[in-house]
Amino acid sequence: MVPEGGLVAAVSGGSDSVALLLLLTSTPRKVVVAHLDHALRPDSAQDALWVRALAERLGYPFESERLEVARLAEERGGNLEATARELRYGFLAKVAKKHQAQAILTAHTEDDQAETVLLQLLQGTGRGLGMRPRRGKVVRPLLELSRSTLRAYLKCKKQDWLEDISNADTSLDRNYLRHEVFPRLKQRFPQTNTSLARFAAISQLDDEALDPLAEQLLLRDQRWPCPAFRIAPLLQAPAGLRRRALRQMLEQINLRPEMGWVMQLERALQGEAFTLPEGWQVRRRDGTLFLIPPVLNTFPAWRGSRLPMPGDLIDPGKGLIRLMDFFTEHGVPLELKQAWPVRAVGNIVQEVWNLWPQPEDLEHMRMALEQARLARHSHEVPIGAVLVWEEEVLAVAHNQVEHRRDATAHAELLALQKALHKKQAKVLPGATIYVTLEPCPMCFGALLEAQVRRVVYAVENLKAGAVTVHRMKPPFAWEGGWLERESARLLRDFFSQKRAAEQGGP
């Protein structure tokens, strides 16, 4: 479980970490002892000196740092315990980097695991339960051992340890559980610690299987300068996978994935706007869920640009309109409109970052949309496709299922066949296909075999989408949302007229 190479041992001076250090004396590997002084007690500096002396006696290099955790937590407006944990792991990572260590060992025990599980349950966390035996470089080799076992080992070795009086402060949640709750639980249920630790292990095995499936539901909408995700795959998924994915969404923006926020995100998928901790704005626009940070600093530097101003106008090819209306047509949330870079002469906007003049992706999707309109005129389901390879449009096509009486005559398959024939090739590595409706599994497989690099679609296929419905994992870039309003309207009108015709028939 512990990778090869040098190790950093986190040693506070308590019984668990001292036992860990003594156990490490049996390994020939390089070990660096690391101690963070949290400055939570007037005499905390003495602990650092004690650990230094122990490390020197055992022949290990020693690294120490003092941080005023309480002051830093107050400045950040954060929880003391959470801030201490964040600073501690930051310090350990710094030591590991300095000494090129391959792992950071901490001395968490079965007791710590049981406390963590119960604390997480009571706090309503939305993430997986318990501490993992290994996460990144951090390894916890003592999770299956009890604190009493380790103390018995130290007594056998005639090794003393430090008692941190702050561990008796029951105003802290973990200490309250340790001193007030667990003793009563163990009186009634002697196997409390073991049972909770086993529950954590089972939960983590579930996480290993389900988290990758949940991660597949988070399809980033690459058009936007902030975290944005397509909604349809999340709404189509079972509730359990969806909530895991929403938890991961919170973790991606470094927020604690509490279940309350996960449930709030579920409501946001239906269109409810709200604000997350630290000022993150959550907004749904069309088929995309936006997580907008309090400070938008993700737009690139753009020479000669400025922010939008009241009265700005733009001519997107159909006469002057208000810039704000242009943004609305493109599904830009209000919070992004105010920070979107433009280039203008006076109040006439000449360029809008990533929107006007329209990028090639948008041009190609408009071509696909024209193909979809041709399909509608032919009484086909209005789906169009355009295939581009090495900046050349190789093929355009639209659905011909009814005309050919062929269930496989889908727009993207026909475009792919035309392109392969034109190039006299069997594959088109690096090609991009633009299609107005998310491909089905059949087309997905064909695009995979043809080594297509990128699939760009307008709207999700809620009936047979390869990713949205069948949850296939795309090996290529998979980007949705381009011209989704126009494509969705075309499909909606087609099926509405078809139903009306069927109801009015004999």
Structure overview:
The protein has 506 residues and is of the alpha/beta class. Helix content is 44%, strand content 16%. It has 18 helices and 19 strands. It has helices spanning 15-24, 44-58, 69-76, 80-98, 110-123, 147-156, 173-188, 192-215, 232-236, 239-252, 259-269, 323-329, 334-337, 360-377, 401-404, 411-423, 441-449, 484-503, and strands at residues 7-10, 31-37, 62-66, 103-105, 134-135, 138-139, 228-230, 274-275, 281-285, 288-292, 313-314, 321-322, 342-345, 348-352, 384-389, 392-398, 432-437, 454-459, 477-480. The strands form 4 sheets. Strands 3-2-1-4-6-5 form a 6-stranded mixed sheet, sandwiched between helices. It has a 5-stranded mixed sheet with strand order 16-15-17-18-19. The longest helix has 24 residues, at 192-215. The protein is elongated. The model has no long low-confidence stretch (mean pLDDT 92).
Please report the number of helical segments. 18
Quaternary status: single chain
Strand arrangement in the largest pleated sheet: 3-2-1-4-6-5
How far from one another are the termini?
72 Å
Biggest sheet features = 6 strands, mixed
Q: Could you say which overall geometry the principal axes of the C-alpha atoms support?
A: elongated
Fraction in helix: 40-55%
Low-confidence stretches: none
Strand content: 15-25%
How much is the average pLDDT? 92
How large, in whole angstroms, is the Cα Rg? 29 Å
Number of strands: 19
Class from secondary-structure proportions? alpha/beta
